[in-house]
Amino acid sequence: MQTNHHTHRFSELFRALVRFAPRIPAFLRANRLLKTAQRSDIGSTGLFLENAARTCPNRIFLRFESEQITYKRFNQQVNQLAHTLAAIGVKKGDCVALLFENAPALLIAVFAVNKLGAVAGMMNHKQRAGVLVHSLDIIQPKMMIIGEGGESAFLSLREHNSGLTETMPCFRYGRVAGETALPDLMERAREASEENPVTTSQVTLGDTSFYVFTSGTTGLPKSAAMTHLRWMKAGVGFGRMALGLRANDIHYCCLPLYHNTALSASLSSVIMTQSSLALARKFSARQFWHDISQHTATTFVYIGELCRYLLNQEEQNGETHHQIRAVLGNGLRSEIWDQFQTRFKIPEIYELYGASEGNIGFVNVFNLKRTVGFSPMTFAIVQYDVEQDQPVVNSKGRMQRVKKGEVGLLLAEVTNTTPFDGYTNNEAASQAKVLKNVFRTGDCWFNTGDLVRDQGFRHIAFIDRVGDTFRWKSENVATTQVEAEIQSNPDVSEAVVYGVAVPHTEGRAGMASVCLRENLSFDGARFYRYLRAKLPDYAVPIFVRIQEGYHETTTTLKIKKSELKKLGYRVWEQGESVYVLVNSERGYEPLNSELLEQIEKGEIRL
After folding, report:
1. Quick one: DSSP state of residue 439?
2. Which of 164, 255, 463, 575 is the most exposed, having the fewest neighbouring CB atoms within 10 Å of its CB?
């Protein structure tokens, strides 16, 4: 495919370095810290908070709705809860499950747990019943704290598995509707000491700080262990090296704190630069720019879906009258990059790449376009056979690196300074992500499962997840690139592309699930002509499903593509509108029983 082939030229990078020159000394200091920090070093989320509270006690740390809390006061509240938890038996290594929506109370609980050397289990408050039981079974918490917004999830847990809530101590922290029978830790904490607990100085960077869960786009969630070291590195890399946050910066976050982009990229960036965090309960496309203005935010964090939702909104007065100087996030697609930056007048975009369970991060520190940026860590991009769904090896069984401009599988070397911490209580899943003897006997690499383009100068562009790219007519089709072209159609608000198996064909045929803009109808001939002008013939989807409303998403706004894959093209039997391309003159036409029979008997060749 011919899209997203952007590579970086030396002249382009040189101009970026000239612009970046004033920040080079700070960048080098931060890079040295990333390289030298060891798992055995004393350090933790709680210790970094204490440092900030000591250095700038009266600076506003947290802004939430009409509330403002200084670093000193926030640290005191954390200490009070930490002493309270210690008094009821929480100790180093224990897991405490936290079931809250975004609020100051959740952040207080996170730091309080960590100050004891315990692990904060970041529960998704939108999970229910069996899925929530599954998540708790993975992390095996010693106790659970329920906060505001967690009531419905807790009620579903009680109804689904009363034994679990009876055997595991459960507490509330503050106002929790309908759960007044639970012991209230906030009341107990008011009488506790405000002094820093001694346990904080005994926690090392290599200790586990959080359990965070994958988004659940491919089945039940898995838990990834986050260490204080990885959290600290995120703050240094994203907060200092990329955003360059300063004392007077206000960073806005409306992503859920049980998601690593908010918990690590945002929260750590603020703490490690001793700036201010403006926190929202949840993302609202209509409220977004009002919140930015209300908090006088200078930076914000995004995920790609958030950007798309903002672009789908009617223009608002406040969307260009703001003080935003830079944004940080992941998943901003290349085809909307310029539109997003221009419409909302955003000077700098620092796209990043990382995974909750991964041991590597990239960030666009030089503010280039359409790239997830640069990484100082050791990585490799190796040749990958999409059809066989495995890396290409030579006669000696070794993998082979791609050339600049080519696409391959991204690997990250596993070392003492860049360890792979794995999935919680899931050794089989952890081992499946590790590759050994890749280039030489005894080496070890983390398999990201992502296909990326080598853009040169240690920069990469994300292309697709392994398994999302599929083979059709002897060509590799990257779903993200086809989705990009479909979503450039002014009639389309949302599109998802995936490969489906069809009898009597090789590979997988492309299928697009499309949401049209309000009050528009689907014109199959016109839609085909549009795509044929944009895409090579092998990348034009064979099937198109017209989805009512919007696609089902995870709580982190990721579309559940795996569910669509399972349904395939036979959803027309359930009353869905499905179209098929069997004749380029006619374009897409409704799939009916007669066409389906001909296709599945091989009488019609796709």
Report:
1. S
2. 575
